[in-house]
């Protein structure tokens, strides 16, 4: 905010007063989480601060729709990112249980078992997608393969993990 002129600060303050509640409600309707909706609203105003020179009238419909579209898109992006991070772990039921140390230990053992049972390319693509939260495009770039190839490799690796999990579940209870 220090780099903004006094006029820009006043314009941003006016935009905030006019649109903050609306943007928050849009973000909340997508995310259904108060903290995340607040974060999206803040991110929206940070982006707006960078484009203040393009905004002529704070009360115009054009400005209102720009702000609303920005809030909706940021909320959807956050929702997709959140679901991408969770879907794989929930599907395999390997997320650590905070209340139960024994359960956490078993899940950690399961994760080690699953990753150690994969070949190097499969393990690498699982790590890039699930632990480092990279998109298929980013994975393709890092591995010097096509985006479709990255998606197919991940799909195959996920199938291998499901098979290994089935073998793990069938194993006797004498796990460390």
Kindly list the characteristics that best describe this protein.
elongated; 7 helices; 176 residues; Arc Repressor Mutant, subunit A; mainly alpha; 2 domains; Rna Polymerase Sigma Factor, Chain: A; 0% strand
In terms of DSSP E residues, the strand content is: under 5%
Question: SS-based structural class?
Answer: mainly alpha
Stretches where pLDDT is under 50 for at least 5 consecutive residues are 90-98
Rg (C-alpha, Å):
22 Å
CATH superfamily of the largest domain: RNA polymerase sigma factor, region 2, helix turn helix motif
How much helicity do the residues have?
over 70%
CATH class of the largest domain: Mainly Alpha
Query: How many domains?
Result: 2
Give the SSE string. Answer: HHHHHHH
CATH architecture of the largest domain: Orthogonal Bundle
Distance between the termini: 54 Å
Mean pLDDT: 81
* Beta strand count: 0
Please summarize the sheet with the most strands: none
Continuous helix count: 7
Large-scale geometry: elongated
CATH topology of the largest domain: Rna Polymerase Sigma Factor, Chain: A
Plain-language structure description:
This protein is mainly alpha-helical and 176 residues long. The chain has two domains: 6-84, Rna Polymerase Sigma Factor, Chain: A (Orthogonal Bundle), CATH 1.10.1740.10; 93-170, Winged helix-like DNA-binding domain superfamily/Winged helix DNA-binding domain (Arc Repressor Mutant, subunit A), CATH 1.10.10. The protein has seven helices and no strands. It has helices at 6-31, 34-49, 61-92, 101-116, 120-131, 136-143, 147-170. Helix 2 crosses helix 3, helix 5 packs across helix 7 (147-170) and helix 6 (136-143) packs across helix 7 (147-170). It is elongated and about 65 Å long. The chain starts with 5 loop residues before the first helix and ends in a 6-residue tail after the last helix. The model is unreliable at 90-98 (pLDDT under 50).
């Amino acid at each position: 905010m220090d780099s903004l002129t006094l006029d820009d600060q006043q314009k941003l303050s006016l935009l905030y007063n006019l649109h903050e509640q609306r943007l928050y409600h849009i973000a909340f309707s997508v995310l259904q989480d108060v903290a995340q909706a607040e974060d999206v609203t803040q991110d929206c105003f940070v982006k707006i601060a960078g484009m203040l020179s393009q905004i002529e009238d704070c009360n115009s419909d054009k400005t209102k729709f720009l702000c609303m579209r920005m809030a909706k898109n940021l909320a959807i992006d956050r929702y997709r990112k959140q679901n991408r991070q969770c879907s794989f772990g929930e599907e395999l039921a390997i997320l650590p249980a905070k209340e139960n140390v024994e359960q956490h230990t078993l899940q950690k053992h399961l994760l080690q078992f699953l990753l150690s049972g994969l070949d190097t390319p499969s393990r690498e693509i699982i790590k890039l997608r699930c632990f480092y939260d990279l998109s298929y495009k980013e994975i393709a770039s890092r591995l010097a393969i096509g985006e479709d190839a990255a998606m197919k490799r991940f799909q195959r690796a996920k199938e291998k993990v499901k098979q290994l999990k089935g073998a793990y579940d069938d194993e006797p209870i004498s796990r460390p």
